[in-house]
Design a protein that fits this description.
Length: about 450
């Protein structure tokens, strides 16, 4: 072993020891809380130690700064707007309108004494500890093709902190998020047909909206996309941990997060001091591919790091209480896409399969080499299936072209693997067999309907 390698091993060991020391400090502050942090961090710390064998601390710091300054991800902006939740929380959204050829859209013509129908609007809801920017690839691909709304959940991104949480100490609930989504729709898309697309917690938000406002679903929603989401039983998720570790986490993690949330300033300093450790945890629970573009990984880190620890703590208990299985019935009579990464450790793909079992005509797509952030890890697959969903729902005209906007694997790099998908009427065929053919002949699995396990050999895969 070379001297530099030996030094790296020593440094890596020191990093693990430092993490253990930090956990011990938290343990003194919060009783047995540190044990849960240690269980979750153990595998990530080992990965960080291995990575340090080849990458020095200074180089890692410079790499993070370089990626932050040059990465294009999250840079897309639309027309800003604000909606207000029932408790007064300010909810930030952006609209990407479709500008027809020849200039700005003229006033809608009156047909037989009435207005021409409003355009279809696709409303994207993001997941826990993320922001509207997490839809970067899908947003870029759909620009100019369909009207879209992207919004930040309360206490995330550019939205305000939850008023009920900060002023009244009220707990966050998925039901509240459903009401927030209704407020955004009322402000940003008050009329016309809607397509609802949600990732992870965003999908749960869509379900909560349906549960509270079934009339909106029946009257205006024409399609639904649920990516890496769940309709309930999240308390049974093992996060890829052994049984003993899962039991410890389930027992103490709520108390850990509550205690850490009460010491937010101190914890934020700790997050900065142990950036490598947290980066390892984020990568493990976000991605499954080995060759994900480092800029994408850093982009995910920035979004998660930007979520204050007290917000992380506020939201966590809501997931155990989430159960919107019955609300899924409202989606039975419309096109539905259910997509998940097979190696998702946060909302395992079995949860997506359970949703699809209750929606037998839904398209179920399982992406083998993908984790929880499949929308960033394999954006071309997600965009391809969303394009098909929008075509089936009549949200985009047949013949429109949707760009898959690149690949996120390290070899291709951002923007180097552009491929346009031409939406023909074959894509909008009457039955699953026609759509299967239009989807480049991907093999179907044993499920009913247009359900498939994404083939690694698919030219659209990342």
């Amino acid at each position: 072993m070379s001297e530099s390698s030996a030094e790296a091993v020593v440094e890596a060991a020191a990093a693990v020891a430092s993490a253990a020391g930090a956990a011990a400090g938290w343990r003194r502050a919060t009783g047995i809380a540190g044990a849960a942090i240690g269980v979750v961090a153990a595998g990530a710390a080992a990965g960080v130690a291995i990575e340090r064998l080849t990458v020095g601390r200074g180089m890692r710091r410079k790499a993070r700064l370089a990626l932050d300054s040059t990465g294009p991800y999250g840079s897309l902006r639309g027309t800003p707007g604000k909606a207000y939740a029932d408790d007064g929380t300010e909810l930030y959204y952006e609209v990407d309108d479709v500008e027809p050829e020849g200039g700005p859209e003229p006033r809608r013509r009156r047909l037989f004494g009435g207005k021409a129908p409003a355009p279809v609007t696709v409303v994207f809801s993001h997941g826990y500890c993320l922001s509207q920017d997490s839809w970067h690839f899908q947003r870029a691909a759909l620009r100019g093709v369909v009207r879209t709304v992207h919004w930040d959940q309360r206490s995330h991104g550019r939205s305000g902190r939850g008023v009920a949480q900060t002023q009244e100490g009220a707990p966050i609930t998925i039901e509240q998020l459903g009401r927030d989504l209704k407020a955004v729709i009322d402000a940003a898309a008050p009329e016309g047909p809607i397509v609802l697309v949600g990732h992870s917690m965003g999908g749960m938000t869509v379900m909560a909206l349906a549960d509270a406002h079934p009339e909106l679903i029946r009257d205006r929603v024409v399609a639904v996309g649920l990516v890496g989401s769940s309709s309930g039983r999240l308390g049974e998720v093992n996060f890829g941990l052994p049984v003993a570790g899962v039991n410890v986490v389930r027992r103490v993690l709520p108390g850990v997060l509550k205690a850490l949330g009460q010491q937010a300033a101190l914890v934020e300093k700790g997050r900065r001091a142990t950036a490598d450790l947290f980066a390892g945890i984020i990568k493990r629970y976000s991605f499954a591919s080995r060759d994900v573009d480092p800029a994408i990984v850093r982009f995910a880190e920035r979004m998660i790091e930007g979520t204050p620890i007290d917000v992380v703590a506020e939201y966590y208990p809501a997931f155990n209480d989430h159960d919107k299985t019955e609300a899924l019935a409202l989606f039975r009579d419309m096109p539905v896409l259910v997509l998940a990464g097979v190696q998702d450790l946060v909302t395992p793909s079995e949860h997506s399969e359970a949703i699809a079992d209750l929606l037998p005509d839904a398209e179920l797509v399982l992406v083998p080499d993908a984790g929880h952030l499949v929308i960033l890890e394999h954006p071309e697959v997600v965009t391809d299936r969303l394009a098909d969903l929008l075509t089936r729902a009549g949200a985009v005209p047949a013949g429109a072209t949707v760009s898959t906007y690149g690949s996120t694997n390290g070899a291709a790099g951002p923007g180097k693997d552009r491929a346009d998908r031409h939406l023909s009427r074959t894509d909008a065929g009457a039955g699953p067999e026609a759509r299967e053919t239009a989807a480049r002949g991907r093999p179907r699995d044993a499920h009913r309907g247009a359900r498939r396990r994404q083939d690694d050999a698919d030219p659209g895969a990342g």
